[in-house]
Amino acid sequence: MTDDFLRAGVIGWPVAHSKSPRLHGFWLKRHGVAGSYEAVAARPEDFEQTVRRLIAQGWRGANVTIPHKESALRMAEIVSDRAAAIGAANTLVFTPGGAIEADNTDGFGFIENLAQSAGDRWRSEGEALVLGAGGAARAIVWSLLERGAARVVIANRTRERADALAAEMGARAVVVDWSDFHDPLRSADLIVNTTSLGMEGRPPLEISFASAKSTAVATDIVYVPLMTPFLESARSAGLRVVDGLGMLLHQARPGFEAWFGPEPQVDDEVRRLMLAP
Ligand code: ATR
Question: Which atom from ligand 1 is nearest to the alpha carbon of 133?
Answer without folding.
Answer: 14
